[in-house]
């Protein structure tokens, strides 16, 4: 109504503007005077106080070209007695009866306010419109109103500003200034009284429909209005945010800009000050019950932020809100994001941060983004908690997550990215922000857009409702599972930041666990998790609990994704709260590795080539990571992907829960068999040891479940695949390890040797040789099969070298050789118990038990099965000294001095052992000399143990000892007898080697005499002159017996008398 009237008055603008400014004083007086009637000695009536000398009015002519004349005529009308009432006039009686309650009819100002408030619901008659206009025009000429306003608000009005509407302008500025400086007011400064505040806002509200009614704004901006709004009819349209840009950001004078800014600040305190917004959203406010709570103070209920939050809640919940209202809301949300000064809380609580870091950035939302950048920074530059809360409230009110265009700084920075990477999405769609996050840290992203995006997402991530798609899909689940309240309501028990944590805890529940998220909600939760994995600051809980640890351990990790990796690397060192949240996030990643968006991007070529089947599954249960591990060494694997996969494998070693499949398959077995163990490597060893013991003891039933045993093999394979997951160390490096590390390595090697399939290096290097020689061999006997074919001409040199390494490892401890352990399980406790008593449970015996069994083999005291296995070990170690750990340990110096050339040979064929035997007299260390003598002793028991002698005498064995069964020194005795038999002619090389061995054995007998009767008997039985020695012993016994018989008793006879005494 007021807009149409203002448009029709094209003549006499100055007089009309002057009169309307007096109307504002009238309204200010009418509102304030009721509360302060006692100041003037007046008695308040049932409505606003009746002004004296009410004018005599007649209905004015319709506002057409004669409107100025009508206005002038109205202004010159004589005044009637004070008893005249608007309700008695025929022009407005019908509208008054229809719209206003009867108790207001006796008061003209009450009638005026009623018709003013209800004009949008029902159109007034033209004659009534003219009557009301003339009444206000004549009434405001009374000079008493300005004096009343000055008296009521005298604590606010500090100087004589009584011209051109400066009184009201001063009061409005004072009201804005008080809202921005609440905490900085001094004790001697009197605040604006509540009644006066309401009056100021009411005046601004009533003048919002016509540009001319705000006299100060009219005179400040009339030139700019003619320049920018000349085609706009005389409403308050230039106050609209769309038009305000032209006046404030181009050529407008400062005082016009200040007047417009003051008006907009008033709108932020009371949305009714915006005529267009109040008109467009009046019906929607009533439908959505945004003013239902009568306990709320009017100041809060009327705030622009409250209106926006209430109506945004309705939109997010799918309730109907008119398009016109949503359009107005969009403009004012953009207005809030562009100019921080329109938010009193920002000005009040962020003043220090603005002055220190963001001065001079007042346009296009730059100041807000500056504050957001500081807000997401580290602790040294963090904003005050009140400022942080004010920023969060502003983001919630403006809701830029629903439409990125609201954030002008983001829109301008990301325009090029949106046009290239997100052009398939409708402009203004909420998915634009999600699309930008998907392209974060990619080639399509520009640096300025990246910064603005992360600044905004930091605050959106702290309230799940600010992501409209997430809220739409999950509001039912949040109410059902997390007991949330309305969109703009909070709860101490479930703050906005905790709702998402509740949702993702239910996102990965199994059917057995129940209370799962709906399918659509789970998809959105996964999307948010993928986005948050890009930056730790986007995870509120992680940043809150790990702020100290981030500064302590990860201050130098500034590259993308490094902070989370750093926290995972230092998992054991983190404080308990941070360790818990990092552990939970890592556990989620193990189930859905796509949460780690950076890793997925790096590994995209490998996934597309080798893992596309499992990657296409909607539910990832660790299949993608398992596939990546299996194809780590493919040509498509790049360095970034390889580092990421290996890092994740290393992290999995810290806790068995970080391996989803292993956790699900073995959780019950771990709780039952390995309680109080969390590290995955220890859990794997514990379960593997249980499986091995049950197998060796031939238990009727395995204690580890079948599904766990299957998954256990997968984990063992992965552990053996990388030196950082399961180290393989050279003997000289073991001395540098701590006892605990040495113990752990031994336990891992024990598991690996029990199942060669777990030996990743062996299976990879010898893959072709296994196909060639061991296709029919059992999986657990692959290494045994390879050892048997080690010296084949078709054996690959690299594979042969790998087999030798495994033999060296096995010979360090009998427990690393499952075949030997099983064959000698009765002999080891019988002959080598003293060694077992001294050894630790998980420490290597350095070949002591095998050395003990070798000596018993020479003594021919082992069981047949054990003897066969020891013979194989003796034959192999005779060709390569490295397979004899005792010899290598005690003779390392002598080998380097006396046999360096032989030791440097690429192919070991027993040269080093022969060198030591030849240089036996030069060996000074007793331990080494003893080992060489033991080798000589062992060679007497079996000629195959002496490869040099066996090679030299191969033909003679075939000709002279073919019928002799190998073993127990029988073939060696055959050759010795042939050497002594002059009728037999041996090969010269064989004869020479045999003679050398006899000399060595003679020397050995001298320097190493028998330590007891058993050793003496063994030496006799293994001697080449055994028959001669036994004959001489028997002859001596017979001679002694005959001498006794022939000579009788040597002692003197004793007489019977002496016996009977």
Automatic annotation (TrEMBL):
Transmembrane segment boundaries: 1028-1051
Residue segments, region Disordered: 48-84
Entry's localization field: Golgi outpost; Membrane
UniProtKB keywords: Glycoprotein, Membrane, Repeat, Sialic acid, Signal, Transmembrane, Transmembrane helix
Keyword Nucleotide-binding: no
Major subcellular site: Golgi
Membrane topology qualifier: Single-pass type I membrane protein
GO molecular function ontology, one term from the record: fibroblast growth factor binding
Cys-rich GLG repeats: 320-379, 444-511, 516-575, 636-695, 736-794, 861-924
Stretches with biased composition (Low complexity): 66-75
GO cellular component entries: Golgi membrane
Entry annotated with the keyword Lyase: no
Designated name of the protein: Golgi apparatus protein 1
Organism: Salarias fasciatus (Jewelled blenny)
């Amino acid at each position: 109504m007021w807009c149409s009237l203002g448009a029709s008055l094209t003549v006499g603008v100055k007089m009309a503007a002057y009169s309307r400014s007096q109307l504002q004083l009238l309204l200010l007086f009418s509102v304030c005077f009721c509360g302060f009637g006692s100041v003037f000695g007046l008695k308040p009536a049932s409505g606003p106080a009746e002004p004296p000398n009410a004018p005599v009015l007649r209905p004015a002519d319709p506002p057409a070209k004669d409107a100025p004349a009508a206005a002038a005529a109205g202004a010159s009308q004589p005044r009637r007695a004070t008893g005249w009432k608007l309700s008695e006039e025929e022009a407005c009686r019908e509208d008054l009866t229809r719209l206003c309650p009867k108790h207001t009819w006796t008061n003209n100002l009450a009638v005026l306010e009623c018709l003013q408030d209800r004009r949008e619901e029902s159109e007034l008659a033209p004659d009534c419109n003219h009557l009301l206009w003339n009444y206000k025009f004549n009434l405001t000429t009374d000079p008493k109103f300005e004096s009343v306003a000055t008296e009521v608000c005298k604590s606010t009005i500090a100087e004589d500003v009584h011209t051109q509407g400066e009184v009201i302008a001063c009061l409005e500025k004072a009201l804005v200034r008080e809202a921005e400086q609440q905490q900085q007011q001094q004790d001697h400064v009197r605040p604006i009284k509540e009644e006066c505040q309401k009056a100021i806002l009411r005046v601004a509200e009533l003048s919002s429909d016509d540009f001319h009614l705000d006299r100060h704004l009219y005179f400040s901006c009339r030139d700019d209005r003619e320049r920018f709004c000349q085609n706009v009819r005389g409403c308050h349209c230039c106050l609209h945010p769309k038009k305000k840009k032209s006046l404030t950001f181009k050529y407008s004078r400062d005082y016009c800009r200040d007047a417009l800014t003051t008006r907009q600040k008033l709108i932020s305190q009371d949305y009714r000050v915006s005529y267009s917004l109040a008109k467009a959203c009046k019906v929607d406010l009533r439908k959505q019950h945004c003013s239902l709570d009568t306990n709320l103070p009017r100041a809060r209920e009327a705030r622009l932020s409250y209106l926006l939050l209430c109506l945004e809640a309705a939109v997010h919940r799918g309730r109907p809100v008119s398009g016109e209202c949503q359009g107005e809301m969009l403009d004012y949300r953009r207005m809030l994001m562009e100019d921080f000064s329109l938010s009193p809380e920002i000005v009040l609580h962020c003043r220090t941060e603005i002055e220190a870091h963001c001065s001079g950035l007042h346009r296009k939302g730059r100041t807000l983004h500056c504050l957001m950048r500081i807000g997401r920074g580290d602790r040294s530059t963090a904003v005050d908690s009140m400022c942080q809360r004010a920023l969060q409230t502003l983001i919630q009110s403006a809701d830029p997550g629903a439409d990125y265009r609201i954030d002008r700084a983001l829109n301008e920075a990301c325009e090029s990215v949106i046009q290239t990477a997100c052009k398939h999405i409708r402009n203004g769609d909420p998915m634009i922000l999600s699309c930008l996050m998907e392209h974060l840290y990619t080639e399509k992203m520009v640096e300025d857009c990246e910064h603005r995006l992360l600044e905004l997402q930091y605050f959106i991530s702290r309230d799940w409702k600010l992501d409209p798609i997430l809220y739409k899909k999950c509001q039912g689940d949040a109410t059902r599972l997390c007991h949330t309240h309305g969109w703009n309501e909070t709860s101490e028990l479930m703050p906005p930041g905790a709702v998402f944590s509740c949702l993702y805890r239910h996102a990965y529940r199994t059917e057995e666990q129940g209370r799962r998220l709906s399918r659509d909600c789970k998809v959105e939760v996964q999307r948010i998790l993928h986005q948050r994995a890009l930056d730790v600051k986007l995870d509120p809980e992680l940043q809150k609990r790990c702020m100290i640890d981030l500064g302590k351990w990860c201050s130098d990790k500034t590259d993308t994704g490094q902070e989370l990796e750093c926290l995972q690397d230092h998992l054991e060192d983190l404080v308990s709260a941070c360790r818990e949240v990092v552990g939970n996030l890592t556990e989620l990643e193990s189930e859905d590795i796509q949460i780690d968006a950076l890793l997925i991007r790096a590994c995209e070529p490998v996934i597309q080539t080798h893992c596309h089947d499992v990657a296409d599954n909607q539910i990832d249960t660790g299949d993608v990571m398992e596939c990546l591990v299996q194809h780590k060494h493919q040509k498509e694997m790049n360095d970034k992907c390889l580092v990421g996969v290996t890092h994740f494998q290393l992290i999995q070693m810290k806790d068995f829960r970080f391996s989803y499949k292993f956790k699900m398959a073995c959780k019950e077995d771990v709780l039952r068999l390995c309680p109080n163990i969390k590290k995955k490597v220890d859990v794997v060893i514990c379960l593997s040891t249980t499986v091995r013991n049950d197998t060796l003891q031939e238990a009727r039933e395995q204690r580890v479940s079948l599904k766990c045993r299957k998954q256990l093999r997968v984990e063992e394979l992965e552990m053996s695949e990388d030196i950082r997951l399961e180290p393989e160390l050279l003997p000289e490096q073991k001395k540098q390890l701590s006892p605990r590390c040495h113990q752990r390595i031994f336990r891992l090697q024990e598991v690996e040797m029990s199942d060669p399939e777990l030996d990743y290096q062996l299976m990879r290097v010898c893959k072709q040789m296994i196909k060639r020689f061991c296709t029919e061999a059992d999986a657990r006997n692959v290494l045994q099969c390879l050892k048997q074919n080690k010296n084949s001409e078709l054996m690959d040199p690299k594979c042969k070298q790998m087999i030798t390494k495994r033999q060296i490892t096995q010979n360090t401890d009998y427990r690393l050789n499952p075949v030997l352990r099983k064959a000698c399980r009765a002999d080891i406790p019988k002959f080598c118990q003293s060694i077992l008593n001294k050894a630790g449970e998980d420490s290597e015996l350095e070949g002591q038990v095998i050395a003990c069994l070798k000596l018993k083999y020479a003594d021919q005291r082992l069981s047949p099965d054990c003897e066969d296995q020891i013979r194989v070990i003796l034959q192999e170690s005779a060709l390569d000294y490295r397979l004899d750990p005792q010899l290598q340990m005690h003779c390392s110096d002598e080998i380097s001095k006396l046999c360096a050339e032989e030791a440097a040979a690429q192919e070991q064929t027993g040269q080093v052992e022969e060198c030591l035997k030849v240089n036996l007299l030069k060996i000074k260390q007793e331990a080494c000399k003893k080992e060489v003598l033991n080798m000589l002793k062992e060679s007497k028991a079996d000629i195959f143990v002496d490869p040099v002698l066996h090679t030299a005498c191969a033909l003679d064995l075939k000709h002279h000892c073919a019928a002799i069964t190998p073993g127990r020194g029988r073939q060696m005795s055959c050759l010795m007898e042939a050497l002594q038999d002059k009728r037999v002619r041996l090969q010269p090389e064989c004869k020479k080697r045999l003679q050398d061995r006899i000399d060595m054995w003679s020397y050995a007998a001298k320097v190493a005499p028998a330590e007891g009767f058993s050793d003496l008997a063994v030496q006799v039985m293994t001697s080449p002159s055994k028959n001669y020695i036994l004959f001489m012993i028997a002859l001596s016994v017979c001679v002694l017996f005959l001498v006794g018989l022939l000579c009788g008793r040597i002692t003197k006879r004793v007489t019977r008398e002496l016996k009977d005494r």
